[in-house]
Batch of 3 targets.
Target 1
Amino acid sequence: MIRYFARRAGHGLLMLFGVSILLFLLFQAAPGDFLSEMKMNSQISPETITMLRAQYGLDQPLPVRYWQWLKSSAKGDFGYSFAYNAPASTLLWPRARNTLLLSLPALLISWLIAVPVGVLAAGWRGRWADRIFAGGTSALLALPDVLIALVALLVALKTGVFPVGGMASINVQDQGTWAWLRDLGWHMVLPVAALVVGSLTIILRHVRASVSEVLESSYVRAAEGHGLPRFQLLFGYALPAAANPLISLFGLSVALLLSVSLLIEVVMSWPGIGPMLLEAIMSRDLFLVIGAVMLSTVFLIAGNLVGDVLLYAFDPRIRRQG
Amino acid sequence: MVHALRNLNCEIAGGESVGVLGESGSGKSSLALALMLLLPKNARVVSGSIDYCGRSLAGFSPAELRQMRGAQVALISQEPALALNPVLPSGQQLADVLRAHGKLTRTEVIARCNEMLRQVGFAEPERIMRAYPHELSGGQRQRVAIAQALICRPQLLIADEPLSALDVATQAEILELLQCLKRDLGLAILFITHNAGALSAITDKIMVMRHGQAVAQGTMAKLQASADEYVEGILFPEKSLAQTAHTPRSRPSVAPLLELRALSKRFVQKRLLSRKEFVVQSLDKIDLVLQPGSTVAVLGRSGSGKSTLARCLAGFETPDSGEILLEGNPIATGGKKKHGARPPVQMIFQDAATSLNPRFTARQIVAEPLEIMRWKSEADRTIRAMQLMEEVGLDPDWASRLAVEFSGGQRQRLVLARALAAEPKLLIMDEALSGLDMPLQAQMLRLLMDLQARHGLTYLYISHDLNFISLFAQEVVVMDAGRIVERTTPEKLGQSVHPATRELVEASERLHAPGVEAAV
C-alpha cells in the first residue's frame, strides 16, 4: 500500500520537474523579457539595462538559469520577482491561500450537491424529474463562466446584500476576529457560488451517467430481486459500484475548479493567484509566472493523489493490485 | 414489437418443482423476470395476470412487492456469477438480503449467514463472508448467489439457467444442493434451462417453450414419448446426430499432422508486496500425436491446462520447452518464439460474440484472413467469402449484415467460415460449442463432421463436458493439472478408473437424463 502511494507521489514529483522545464523552454521561445520595455524608454541608458540584465541573471544561458532557479526553489524562494523585488514564494503563498479559500469550499459543496442529486436523477431516469434535470444541467453547461461571475456581481450591485468583489471590508480587522471572519465569509459567498455553478453541472452529469450504467447491471437487478429497499439499492449498491470513474473525476474536478477560479478571481477582484498570474504574464515577470503555474500543478497533483487514496479505499480490486 | 411470451399458462404448487425447457430466444428468461415483475422498462404486460397465493401481483403495492421479492419468491438470475456487486464483500451482500426482510440483531444475522453458507457447501463461511466477489471462483460466486436467494427461506425459487457458466463437476454439485434443499425445506422450484439432462433429476413436471408459448407440458417420461419434432430435438439433441455419425476411419499409415514432444509451459505470478512467486505449471511434458482427418477430444476441468495447450498450438503462447511439429516441421520449440501467422492452424473460441468485430460486416469478417494473406483481388475475395458462408449454412445474401445482427448460433458459424477461409489443416475448438444450447450444438457438430468429411480437416476439440464426444471424436485425452492423465477412446471412457476421468464421467452422468444416453 505504501509503495502504491510512494509510486503515485513519485509520478507527481516527476511531473513537477517536467512542467518546470517546459515552462522555462516556453519562456525562452517567447520574444522579449522583463527588461524589453525599458529599452523603449530613452531615459534609461543601454548600459543600465545591460547591467540590470546581468544583475537579474538574464544574460546567462538557459541551463544555468534553470539550475539557479532549482537552487532557489530548494531554499523555498522559487525565484525572485523582478516587479515586486521579493522572493516569488513570499508573494505566492498568501495568494495561494486565498485561492484555496475559494476552491476548497466550492469543491466540497459541488460534490456534496452533485452526488445525491446525480444518484437520484439516475434512479428517476426516463421520468419527468430526470428530463427537467437534464434540461437544467444542459442550460447551465452552456453558460460561460465569465457570464456567471458577471451575473453574480450584478446581483451584488442591485441588491446590496453582498459585497461587490474584494475579500475584506475596510478597517474590518480592527473590529476583532469574529467580525473579520464573518466579513470574510460574506465576501466568499458570491465567488464560491459562481464557482459551484460553474463546476457542478459537469460533475452532476458524470454521477448520473455512471450510476445509470450500474443500475442496468445484472447485480443491481439481482439485488432488486432480493427485495432490497430502493434507497439502499441506489446509495448502498449502485453508488459504490459506480464510484470508480467518479473518483478519477474528483482529481480532474480540482483542475477544473482551479481554472474557473482564476477567471472568477480576476472578474470579482479576489486577491488569489488569478489576478497575480495575469499581471505577471503581462509584465513578463518570469519567476512569478513559473511559480504560479507550478502552484496550480501542485494543487492538481494533490487532487489526483487524494483521488488515488479514495480509489484505494473504495475499490477492493485496486487494493489487491497493490 | 416482439411478443416474448404469448398466452402462457402455468401453475406451480407449493413444494413442487417445474422445469422450463426451450431453445434460446423461446422466452424462458422473460418468464422468470415477469414472475418477479422485474421486466426491463421497454417491456409491457399486454394481457394476463400472475397470481401468487391467490392474489394478483398487479395489485401489490411497491412495498408489498419488495417484501415478496427475496422473502417469498427468490430469483437466481442468469449468470449468477455476475449477480454479486464487485465492490462489496459477499458477506455484506448476503446479510443485506436478510436485513431487508426483518429486524435481527447483528449476532443473529451473522449466525444465519454462516449457517446458510454452510448449507450451500462452504466449509469456512467466515472466510467467504469477508471475501470480495473477485476473490471467489465462478462456482463459489454461484453458491453465494444461491445462498442470497435462499437465506430468507422463500417458498418459491426461480432459477434461470443457474448452471450454464459452470464446469460439469460444479454443475453436478449445485444440482445436488438444490435437490437437498427442495427435500429439506419444501422449496418449490421453477428451473429454467436449455439442457434437458439436468431437469429429470430435479423436476416433477416439465414445460417445453417455443416462441413464448408452452408447446408441451408433462412429466419427463411423457415428454420422452412425445412425437413432436421440436420437443424431441430439445430432449435428444444427440438423436439427430446419430444418423450423420460415421465410423472412425483410422489411417495409421499416413504421417502425423501434428506432433507435440514434451511440451511444457508455466506461468509465474509475482506479487508486488511479497517476494513469493506463484508458479502455475500449466502444461507439463505433454506428448500428443494428431493423425490427419481425425478428431481428438481434450477433456478436463477448468484450470487443467486445456486452453494453454490450444494457445500454444495456435501460437499465442511460446512453450517453455518441448517441440511442436506440424507435418514434421517444427513450428515452435521451447523458449523460442516463431513469429507470423499459422494459417494451417486455426482456432475457434467459446464466445463467438467477442471474437467478432461488431463493426464488421459478415463479408469483411470472413474475407479478413484472405486479405491478410493478400489472396487474389478484392472481387475474388468477396466471391470466396460468399462461398464460405454458404458452406457453413449461412445465406450469402446476409454478407452485408453486421456481426451483431446474427444470432448466437449463426455467429459461431461465421467464426467457422472465417477459420475455413485460411484453408486450415487443423481446427482447434476451445469450448467452441459450450455457449450454445443443445439443439444448436447438435447442428454445429453435424456441420463440422460434414466439413471434415469434405475437406479432410483435423479437429482438436477441447471441452469440459462429455456431450456428443462419443459421436464426434475417435480419441479422448483427459488432462488434469497440466498433465495428460489418460488416453482412451470415447467408448472406453465410461470404464476408466482414473479419478480425474471418473469425476468428469460421473458429473456428466448426473447431469443427463438416463433416457438421453440410452437414445444414442
Note: Confidence is low (pLDDT under 50) at residues 245-251, 513-520 of chain B.
Target 2
Amino acid sequence: MSPSQTRPEVALQLNGVCKSYRGVPVLEDVSLTLDHGEFMGLIGPNGAGKSVLLRTILGLEQPNGGSVSIYGRPPALSHQDVAYVPQYARFDRDFPIRVRDVVLTGRLRPGRPGYRQDDEDRARADSALERLNLTEHAQRQIGRLSGGEMQRVLIARALTSDARLLLFDEPTANLDASLVTGLYDFLKELTGERTVVLVSHDIGVMTSVVDSIACLNRRMHYHGDKEITHEMIEETYGCPVDFVVHEHRHVVLSPHEDEQPS
Amino acid sequence: MIAETMALMLAAPLQVQGGLDEGGILQALQYPLFQRALLVGLAASVACGVVGSFVVVKRITSLSGGLSHAAFGGVGLGYLLGFPPLLGAAGFALLCGLVIGLTHQRMRSALDTLVSIVWSAGMALGILFIALSPGYAPDMETYLFGSILYVPSDSVVMVALLDAVIVFLVGLRFRELRAICFDEEFARTLGLPVERLFLLLMALVSLAVVVLINVVGIILVIALLTVPAATARLWVDRLAAMMVLATLLSAACTTGGLFFSYGLSNHLDVNIPPGPVIILLSVAFYAASLLLRGRKSADAAG
C-alpha cells in the first residue's frame, strides 16, 4: 500500500465484458481502464466487435457478462457523460433541419423537455460550431454540406453535450487524406479536456496522435501504451501479417497457409 | 349516391331562397352547412400540416394509410354495438397505432409488413361487423369517402378538440420528436425515451387520421397526410416552417375544393363531392411546386 501519486479519475472501466449474439461470441472477457483525459486508439479487423463494444459502452447493448462503468456509473445512468460520433451520417440528408439545430440536439437529455432549451444551450452549440469552423454554415440545411463539413457537424453535435467521454467510430473512413490530418490534430487538441476513444483502421497515422492503442478481435489486447507488438497484431488479426505503412494508407498482406478467419 | 346526397344538401337551401345564381360562389357562405364544412376543413388543416410533416419526414406515409383503413374496423364496431362510428374509428386507430408502434420497437418487425396487416385486418373487421349489424348501414359510405358537407356539429367540436390535443402535445415535445425522426440512433445515445416518443408519434398520427376522415374519408386520408407536407418541404428547410406552410396549403385546398364543388353544383348543375377535388387540388400544388422547386434543390444538393 504505497502512497500513490494522485491519479486522474477513471473515465472508462471495462471488466470482463462478454457479449454474444445467438450463441456466437462477439466480445470475450474484454477489460480496460482508461483515465480521464486520455486518448485511446482502437483497432481490429472487420467483425472484431469494435462497434458492438462502442454500443455496449453507450448502453445501447447489454453485455452478457462483465461490467461497464463510465466515471463510476453504469451506462444506463451516464448518457450525459458519453457522446458518440458515428462513422457516417445515417440520417436523411433531405431532412428539413438546419446545421445549428442538428448541433443543438446534442443538448437534449431525458428529464428536461426540449422546449426548455435556453441561452446556455445555444451558446454551447455556437461555440462548438465555431470550434469546428462551421459558423458560416450554421443556417444551412443539413444536406447542403460536403462530406468533411458533415463529419464536423457530427463532431460538433457530440462536443455540444457535457459528455466527458467521446467515442469516435472510424470518423476518417469517408474523408480525404487532407482532411484526416486536420481531424486528428483537432482530436489531439481535445486530449486532457475530454477522454477520447477512436476506432480506426488507420494504424499508421493513429500511432502519432494517440496515448495508447488497444487491439480488439473478440478479445482485447491492451497494454496501456501505444506500442503495437507483432504479437498484438498476430493475435488480433488471427494470422501473421506484415503491414506496410505509406502515407495514410496501409496494406495488409497475409502470407500464411491457414484459413483466413471469417 | 354521394353526389346525390350533396346535391340535395346544397339544392335545398338554394330552392328555398331562390334566385341566388346572380350572387356567385361567395353566396355559399350563407349556408350553415357550408360554413360548418369550411370550419371543419380549416381546423383539419392544422392536424394535416402538423402531423403530416412528421409523417413525411419520418417516411411513414403508408402507416397513415394503414391506420385510416384500420379505423374502418371501429366504424363497423360502432354500427354493430350502436355507438358513434367515429368514436369507434378513433379507438381503433389509436389501438392499432400503439400496437404497430410497440411491435415495431420491441420485436423489430418491419414497419411496412405491420402496416399492411393492420390495414387489411381493419378493413376486414369493418366489413364483417357491418355485415353482422342488424339492418342497413345507411351512411357507411360517408366514412369511406368522406362527406365534409354533411358533418354534424358535434364533429366540429371533436375536430377542434383533437386539434388542440395535437398542437399541445407537439408543442411539448417538438424537439424530441424531431430528434427521433431525424436520427433515432443518436437520440438513443442521448438517453431519450425513444420508444415512448415513437408511440406518441403513432398516437398523433391516429388522432390526425380521425380528424381527416371527417374531411375526405378513410380512403383519401393518406393523401392529406402526405401531399401538403411534401409540397411544403419543397419550399422550406425547417420542420416548423414546413408545418405552417403545409397547414396553409391544406387550408387553401379544402377551401378551394369546397367552393369549386359548390360552384359546379350551383352553376353547371354538376354534382361532385368536395373530397376528391380537395385531393386533386393538393396534388396540383405538389406538381407545380415540383416543377418550380424540384430541379433547384436537386442542383443545390448535388
Note: Chain B touches chain A through 31 residues (CB under 8 Å).
Target 3
Amino acid sequence: MQPTDPLAVRLVKAAGLRNACDLDLLLFFSRHPRVVLSSEQLAAYVGYDLVEVARALDLLLGAGVLKRTLNHGTPGRMYVLEVDHAEEWLEPLRQVCATPDGRSALRALLRQRRSPKGVADGDPGQTSGRRR
Amino acid sequence: MPERDFVKTGIAGLDDIMAGGLLRGSVVLVEGTAGTGKTTLGMEFIYRGAAEFNEPGLIVLFEVSPDKLVRDAALFGWDLPQLERQGRLKIVFTTRQVFQQEVQQADSLLLDEAAAIGARRIFVDGLVRRTPGDSDAGRNTPEAFHLLAEGLQRERLTAMIGVEVTAADGAGLSASLPEEFIADTVVHLRVEAMDRAVQRSVEIVKARGQDYRMGRHSFSIVDGKGVEVYRRVQAPRDLAREEAAAYDTSTRVTTGVPGLDEMTNGGYFLGSTTLVVGITGSGKSVMALQYIAEGARRGERSVMLTLDEPRAQVLRNAASIGIDLKPAIDKGLVRLVYDRPQEIEIDRHFLQLEKIVKEFQPRRAVIDSLSTYGSSLGPTGRSFRDFFHAVVALMKEHQVTTLYNHENPELLGMSSVMGPFGVSSLVDNVILLNWVELADTFRQALTIAKMRANAFDRTTRECEVVNGQGMRVLPREIPPGATRRLAFWEYYSLVSRSPERHAPPSRG
C-alpha cells in the first residue's frame, strides 16, 4: 500500500488521526478495548514518551473514541474504547495495519500531512518522542 | 442442613468430578505451567456462565491481549464480542502491579466494572506464584491475595484465578503455598509425559465445603467444543454400579456358535462376563462376530468395541464367514466402535463406552481385545486392572452380556489363562481356544475352563471355521465314514501340549 492510497487517506481522515502516536495508541486500544493501566505503563506499551501519549490520549478522548475514568488515587485508570469494532473505519484500519507494509503507509501519510514547521506537531517516529 | 448453592461451571465433565459444581462465592485457584489449559478453562467458565446460566462475568488479563482471547474463543464457537455487546461480559486488560493495588481499594475499578454488569463470575488470568525469597513486585503476595479474596467475597463473585507455575514447580505442583490455604478450591492442571506421548490431567486437590472426586482425571481441549474432562476410570461411580455384581441366572444369551450352546446348557447367563482366550488366528474374533450376528438375528442390540481392527476390516472379516453386518448396523441393531490403540486416553475411552452403554442399551457386547488394552496400558500396572474392573462393573450394571477376547501368546496348549494380566478371577466364564497338533495337522480345540453357577460340558471339543459359514463345535463323536481322523476323546492331554493316544481297545 502506498501513502497515497485512497483507502489510507480515507481511514486517517475518518479516525481523525494526526500522527503516528495517535495511530499506535488507537491500535493498542482496539486490541485492548478495556484496560486499567497507569500512564507510564500505557506509554511503555505503545512505545512513546509520556508527553506524546498524553497528547494522543487527549485527541482520542476529545473525539469521543476513548473514555477514561477519573483519577481515584490509584496509579491505574480505566480506559474504554467507545468505538464498536463494527464501526465502519476501525476494522478496515486494523486490517490495513495488520501488515508492516500497511502500517508504514499510514505512518508515512501522517508524516506527509504534518505542518510545514516539521516536527512541531509531527511524527515522533522521526523525533525524540519515539522511545523505541 | 441448609441447601448449598452450587455454581455449575458448564464445562463438560468438570461439574461431575466437582460433585455438582463450585460453591457460590468460592475462590478457585487453577494452577499449572504454561500450556496446561488454564486460560481456556477460565474462559469457558466465564463463557458458559454468561451464555448458558445467565451469570454475567468479568475476565481480567495480564498477558494475553483481549483480541487474541476473542480469536481463540471463536475456535470453540464462543462469541465473546456478542456477550460484551449484550452486557453479559467484560474483558479488562491490566498489569499485575495495578491489579494488586486496585483490589486493595474499597472502590476498586475492577470490582465496579463487575458490579456494573451484575457479574457473578470472574476469571483472573495469570497470577504468578511468589516463591520464598522472590522479591519481584509483579508477583502477588499472600497478603495481596488475601485482600483479593476478601474483595471477591464482598461482591459474592465466584472466582477462578489462573496461577502460573514454573516448569520446576510444575514437576511437583505439590508444595502448598499460602495462597492455597486462602483459596476455597485448588485445581492443578498438568501435561504429563507418557513415554513419548503426553496427556492432560486435572486434579482437584482441595475443595472447601464440598465433595469432589479425588485423583488425576484426564481432559482434552477440543476444537469447536472446549474443555472436556473425563472422570478417572478408577473413581467410584454410583451405588448401583458398585453393587452390580449379580447376573440373571434364569435368562440365557445364545452364543451364535453351533454346538457351543449345548456345551453351555443354552448359552451365557444374561449379564455375565466371558473371557475368550487363544492365540492369534484361533477363532476369537470369528466367535465374537457370530455372537453379534446371533443377537441381530434375534433383534437384540449389540456393540462391538475393537482396538485391533478398524470398522471396514471387521465388516470384511464378517463377510468372509458369511455374515453381513451392514443391514443390522443400518437397522440400529449393531454398533461397531473402533478406537486407535496408540496413545489411548483411557478415561476418555471409558467415558465413550459408558455413553454407548447408557444410550444404546445393548444386550450383547464384545471387547476385542483385552490384550491390546494391556499393551497400551501396561499389563502389570494398575491401569489395566482398574480399567477392566470398571468395564465389568459397567456391563453388569446394565446387564450386558459381554465377551472379552484375549490373545494368549502360546502356540500350542495353554499354561496360563491370562499370563501377567491377573484379572481372570473377575470373569464368570472362560473359554479356551487352542491349536492341538495331531499327526501332521493343527486342529482347533475349544475348552470351557470356567462357568460360574453352571454345569457345563468340560470336554475339549474340536471346532472348525469354514469359509462362508463361520465356526462350529463338532460333535464329540466323529460320524462314521466322515473322515479317517480320530476324535479328540481318543487322546489324553490335548491342552497340555503333548497329546497322547489312548491305548486302542483290546480285541477279543
Note: Strands of chain A lie at 34-37, 66-68, 77-81.
